[in-house]
Specification:
alpha+beta; Jelly Rolls; nine-stranded mixed β-sheet; single chain; four-stranded antiparallel β-sheet
Length: 434
C-alpha cells in the first residue's frame, strides 16, 4: 500500500471535517504533532498576540505553554472565536483577513482530539522573530509620556489627556505607528491625535502633564486628525509603500487616555512608536468618521437602530474601516452611496464584539468618486438578553465610559499629497451669480 504524505493526510482531514459535522479524525493514519504541524500554524496566526508581553492572556510559543490549552484552542477555532475576525463572509474583500484554512482548522482539531502529542522537537520550525515590545519592528522614533498617570484602585477615571511636542522642525511622513500602553490591565484605550502649530485646542495647558478637561468643553474646540490608537485587539497602523500619514512641523501629539480601575492602584506610562516613510509618498492617508452622537437607546430595547453618514467632496481611495461601539453594540454596517445612485455594502459585522476593536483593510484600489456618501448603520442590544449589558433598565446616550455608548464609523482614505483635506470634507463654494 502506498503511504500518504503528510500534506495528503492533512488535506484528507480537511475534506473529512468539511463533510462530517463535529467529526474527529480518529481513524486517520497519523495524529498531527505539536512541533511539526501545530507550531507553524500558531506562528502564522496566533503568536503576534499570544507571546510574552503582548495583549493575549497566555503565551503560545512552546509545547509546555500550549498543551494545557489544547481543548480550548479547538473550541475557539471551531467556533471562529479565534483568530478574531468578524466581517461577514462575501461582503467586501480585506487583505488582513484573519482566518484559518480548512487544513489548519482540521489539524488543530485532530491534534487536540488525538491527545495533543508533542512529537519530535527537531521537526519544529525556527522560532518566529518579533521585535520585543513592538509589533511594527524597531521604531525610528519613540515618544514616551514624560510623566506617569496614576490610576486608582477603584472609581471612575475620567478621560485624561497629555500633550507631548514632537519637536519636528520639518514635515514628516509616517508609514507605521503603534501605541504601547505601560499597563494593559487598566488601559481601555489610547488615541494619539495631531495638534498642528497654532491650534487653540487645549491652548494654555502645560506640556507633558496629564489633565482632565473642563466639563462642557470650552477649551478651544475639539480633536483634529487622528494618528493612531490602541485598544484591545486593535492592530497598529501599517501603510504600504506609497502611502503615509502627514505630521507637519511644529505639531504636538495629544494623547487621549481612558483607564478602567481594576481593584489595584497602578500607574501607566504609554509610548508611541513611529516609522518614517523612506520617501515622500504618492498618497496621504487620513482618518475620517461617520458619527452619530445624538441617539437615545430606550431601556430593554433589543435592536435599536442608529445611522450616521459622511459625504466625500473629492475623489479618494478607501484604505480601511473600523466600527466602534461599546458594550451594547450588536452589529455594524458600512455602505457607499455613489453619485450614480448605486449602493454598495463595504463591510458588515453581524456580531460586534467590544473586546476586539478591529481594522478591516480593504483589498485592491477601492475608488470612492467625488460625491460618494459613506453611510453606517448600527444596532444596539439594551435588553437583559445581552450578557455584557451593564444595566438593561437604563436609557442610554452618547458618553465616554463603557456603560454609556458611542456610534462611530471610522474609515481611512488616501488622496494625492497636494490635495487639501478640507476639500474632501467640505463642499465647494459656489461662485456668486452675476
Amino acid at each position: 500500500m502506498r503511504l500518504m504524505t503528510r500534506a495528503a493526510q492533512l488535506a484528507a482531514m480537511a475534506r473529512l471535517a468539511a463533510m462530517i459535522s463535529g467529526c474527529t479524525p480518529m481513524l486517520l493514519a497519523a495524529v498531527p504533532t505539536f512541533h511539526k504541524d501545530v507550531l507553524p500554524i500558531l506562528q502564522r496566526n496566533c503568536q503576534e498576540c499570544h507571546r510574552a508581553g503582548e495583549a493575549a492572556p497566555m503565551a503560545l510559543t512552546t509545547y509546555d505553554q500550549v498543551r494545557p490549552w489544547a481543548k480550548a484552542i479547538k473550541a475557539s477555532v471551531s467556533s471562529k472565536k479565534m483568530p478574531p475576525w468578524f466581517a461577514e463572509e462575501g461582503v467586501g474583500k480585506f487583505h488582513n483577513e484573519r482566518k484559518l484554512t480548512p487544513v489548519e482548522l482540521a489539524t488543530l482539531t485532530a491534534w487536540a482530539d488525538g491527545g495533543a502529542p508533542a512529537g519530535n522537537p527537531k521537526e519544529a520550525p525556527a522560532p518566529a522573530k518579533f521585535v520585543t515590545g513592538w509589533s511594527i519592528g524597531q521604531p525610528d522614533l519613540v515618544i514616551e509620556m514624560p510623566q506617569a498617570v496614576e490610576v486608582p484602585a477603584a472609581g471612575t477615571v475620567e478621560y485624561t489627556y497629555m500633550i507631548i511636542p514632537t519637536g519636528f522642525k520639518e514635515d514628516r511622513w509616517i508609514q507605521m505607528a503603534e501605541v504601547r500602553p505601560g499597563d494593559r490591565a487598566v488601559t481601555h484605550h489610547v488615541i494619539a491625535f495631531l495638534r498642528p502649530a497654532g491650534s487653540k485646542w487645549f491652548a494654555g495647558r502645560e506640556l507633558g502633564v496629564p489633565f482632565i478637561p473642563k466639563k462642557g468643553g470650552g477649551e478651544g474646540g475639539g480633536a483634529t486628525e487622528l494618528l493612531v490608537g490602541y485598544a484591545p485587539g486593535l492592530p497598529p497602523a501599517v501603510l504600504p509603500e506609497g502611502q503615509a500619514k502627514l505630521v507637519k512641523a511644529g505639531t504636538d501629539i495629544v494623547l487621549q487616555l481612558h483607564y478602567t480601575s481594576n481593584g489595584k492602584a497602578t500607574t501607566d506610562r504609554s509610548r508611541l512608536g513611529l516609522i518614517f516613510s523612506k520617501a515622500e509618498p504618492k498618497q496621504r492617508v487620513m482618518t475620517l468618521q461617520a458619527t452619530n452622537a445624538r441617539f437615545v437607546i430606550p431601556p430593554q430595547e433589543a435592536n435599536h437602530r442608529v445611522d450616521s453618514q459622511m459625504t466625500l467632496y473629492q475623489e479618494t481611495e478607501l484604505v480601511s474601516l473600523m466600527p466602534h461601539m461599546h458594550l451594547r453594540g450588536k452589529d455594524f454596517e458600512y455602505r457607499a452611496i455613489y453619485p450614480t445612485g448605486e449602493t454598495e455594502t463595504l463591510l458588515r459585522v453581524p456580531k460586534y464584539d467590544f473586546n476586539w476593536q478591529l481594522y478591516y483593510y480593504v483589498a485592491g484600489n477601492k475608488k470612492l468618486p467625488k460625491g460618494t456618501r459613506i453611510e453606517c448603520t448600527a444596532h444596539f442590544d439594551n435588553s437583559a438578553n445581552n450578557p455584557a449589558n451593564p444595566d438593561p433598565k437604563a436609557e442610554v446616550r452618547w458618553g465616554d465610559q463603557s456603560w454609556e455608548e458611542m456610534m462611530i464609523g471610522w474609515f481611512d482614505v488616501a488622496f494625492p499629497t497636494k490635495l487639501d483635506p478640507m476639500q474632501i470634507m467640505r463642499p465647494e463654494k459656489k461662485a456668486p451669480a452675476e
